[in-house]
Design a protein that fits this description.
Two copies of one chain form a homodimer. With 324 residues, chain A is α+β, with helices and mostly antiparallel strands. In chain A, 29% of the residues lie in helices and 24% in strands. Chain A contains eight helices and eleven strands. Chains A and B meet through α1, β1, β2, β3 and β4 of A and α1, β1, β2, β3 and β4 of B. β1 (43-45) of chain A pairs antiparallel with β2 of chain B, so a sheet runs across the interface.
């Protein structure tokens, strides 16, 4: 149980200071002693002098990003991985993080321990250190956690940088993430770091709100994306979702959020066949799809055009966070 | 009104992307263009090479840290100042921040604009740049914001570092903050930076959970604090609170949270009279109180001892964040 009526197992029973001590012990290997870690007013970061620093922040809220069907460990690791996906989307490597925990007094301590167990395991896998944080109250039955992650990058790949003619790629497969993948995904860190080193990679981002919404961010001014519909990698779970939703699998692939795949462009002058070989050599087990090409804006002003039919594609909206 | 039944004035009416554009325009002068600012997967930080970097995170939740009696601008500036107080407590200067916004779909846009107006004004005053963030949903009627602030420091002053015999000081006056000061306080940045440069300052922190709880963090192993009760700077609002609470003003000065003053120690070998002169020269308008001295642990194991009577002081608990 995430929230408890048994006061002995509620975070309110032990209070903030003891809770912070427990969190410290739960995090074990992925913390640092103060002043580099938890325990002072701020954490002191010894940053690398080469390259640039990058920073991202992302939250995880009960009822929004996970529900009672998700175990605490998976919720904890999802919080870390959401942020790692943003680091991957810049071609960076993660370093340090701070964690703000907001919870009702009835949050169960054993649930929270399992949550931090998931955080610890994920931080060990990806070499992240949790160096500080904050604990704060919410109304009973509520839980949010916000992680701010700092990483480093040698060559930054931005969302902006693509030009008309550039080839558009996605990793993995898309859609239906809500069935499973929104919890069990792998942030594409190695792939992002590799792409950052490819001189012909012109723009890079991760897919979190759906291809239909996210691809727009890569489009240069007065351009559109000509999509090869046949090449959209539809996930099996998008097919499953379509069975129950009554919508097309392709719509799920375009519009569902939380794919956590990479979306990027390669210079028009590069050969897709050559790029496919380079990719295959480095990542033989991760599917790569050339889904289209950037083009001059169409007469009708459509954002996405079907290459085959020259018609506008109907999917232009992704996941909206603030809708009721 | 913070939350609205008028859908046109709710954040859900405009959606996340348009909301982020508005936030960008509200923040105006205190943002940077991407990739140094809002707009890509991460923000790129150009850090100074001298000194160390420090990081802190703090949250602000409706119903916990402010209520309907607090105007939106003041709530926004409180979020920034809470974090600035942590930077001050390390003797640092603020640089960059990222902001995670968690809100119900019924949050009123005009309230949020005023909230960001308070953030902007405060960031202008203290030279903070908001370089990124995240927007995420909560259940209707709920609002939290989490700020992670990165600063820099030449000489770090930690909580640990005090020794037995050191003099204990606080700035300003204590207690009754809930009446007014928890909103209208000044983070002690200049004072913290000045203290960081004083070779005889041995430990430094800010007071957020009450003197009774926070002072314990400065105590070296097997020590206690001998307190000169007459020198505790009781705030006028602690007297006001005592009138209605039935507790002693001194208890409010010791145990109330959110003073946002500095608590620090000066080497035993330094002359308090000389230190008072140095302080007065730099900060003639901010009260400084020498409230006691660190001493060997007492027989009874008490944390705080009244210098005059040699008796243990009864106030050992501060503000607890997770109690119902």
């Amino acid at each position: 149980m995430m929230f408890t009526k048994n006061n002995q197992n509620a975070v309110s029973a032990i209070g903030e200071q003891a809770l912070i001590q427990r969190i410290n012990s739960w995090l074990q290997s992925v913390t640092l002693p103060p002043p580099q870690g938890i325990g002072d007013d701020c954490a002191v970061i010894h940053h690398k002098t080469a390259g640039s620093q990058i920073i991202t922040t992302d939250s995880l809220t009960y009822g929004q990003h996970f529900d009672a069907s998700v175990c605490a460990q998976d919720a904890g690791s999802k919080l870390i991985k959401r942020n790692l996906s943003d680091i991957a989307a810049m071609g960076g490597a993660p370093d340090h993080a701070v964690l703000a925990l907001l919870c009702g007094p009835d949050l169960a301590i054993d649930w929270l321990e399992a949550f931090f167990c998931g955080i610890r395991a994920c931080c060990e896998t990806y070499a992240v250190k949790i160096v500080g944080g904050d604990v704060s109250g919410l109304a009973p039955g509520h839980f949010s956690a916000v992680l701010t992650l700092i990483g480093s990058v040698e060559t930054t790949k931005l969302r902006t940088g693509a030009a008309i003619g550039d080839w558009i790629y996605v990793t993995g497969s898309l859609g239906g993430s809500i069935l499973e993948k929104h919890i069990h995904f792998t942030p594409r860190l190695k792939e992002g770091q590799w792409l950052a080193k490819q001189p012909d990679c012109s723009a890079l981002m991760d897919l979190t709100d759906g291809l239909a919404k996210d691809l727009e961010a890569l489009l240069p001014h007065q351009s559109c994306a000509r999509i090869d519909i046949q090449q959209i990698p539809i996930a099996e779970d998008a097919l499953k979702r379509a069975n129950s939703s009554g919508r097309m699998p392709m719509e799920h692939a375009f519009c569902d959020g939380e794919d956590y795949e990479l979306l990027f462009t390669i210079n028009a002058s590069s050969s897709p066949a050559d790029f496919a070989r380079r990719w295959q050599h480095s990542f033989p087990h991760l599917r790569l799809s050339l889904i289209g090409q950037l083009a001059e804006a169409s007469d009708k002003g459509a954002t996405y055009i079907d290459q085959a039919s020259n018609e506008a594609l109907p999917w232009v909206h992704g996941f909206e966070h603030l809708k009721e």
